[in-house]
Amino acid sequence: MAKQGSSEIYTQVRKDHPDFIEALDALGRAARKAGPLDEKTVQLVQLGAAAAIGATASVASHARRALDAGAKRAELRHAVMATVNISGFPNVIGALAALEQVPRKAGK
């Protein structure tokens, strides 16, 4: 059996369990609206959290969302690097490598 990446598994779960994913999406929307942070800042926070747990597929996803919300690539790198004392150097390097895979055209 071929190994699936996180995005392929997410796509399959979305297809097989749409109610579950909708509930997850609703929770995320509620969390984003629960306070004063703007969308760019929220996505940078989520990017840092993804980096801290080594979730490189989520790193790429939140990097694209942060770029779409107006973040600069330097802000993405800083959000990842700022987690080093919590996440450890290997997770930071892995997340920085994932950032490099985000297309340059993202964030228009």
Explain this structure to me?
The protein has 108 residues and is mainly α. It folds into two domains: 8-37, no CATH class; 38-108, AhpD-like (Up-down Bundle), CATH 1.20.1290.10. The protein contains seven helices and no strands.
What distinguishing features does this structure have?
0% strand; single chain; 7 helices; 108 residues; mainly alpha; AhpD-like
Task: Summarize this structure briefly.
The protein is mainly alpha-helical. The chain is built from 7 helices and no strands. The mean pLDDT is 90.
Set out the fold topology:
Elements: H1 6-16, H2 18-33, H3 39-52, H4 56-68, H5 73-81, H6 84-87, H7 89-100
Low-confidence stretches: none
CATH topology of the largest domain: AhpD-like
Quaternary organisation: single chain
Fraction of residues in β-strands: under 5%
Helix-and-strand structural type: mainly alpha
DSSP E strands, number? 0
The CATH class designation of the largest domain is Mainly Alpha
The CATH homologous superfamily name of the largest domain equals AhpD-like
Q: Main beta sheet, described?
A: none
Provide the helix percentage. Answer: over 70%
The N- to C-terminal Cα distance equals: 38 Å
The CATH architecture of the largest domain comes to: Up-down Bundle
Q: State the order of secondary-structure elements, H for helix, E for strand.
A: HHHHHHH
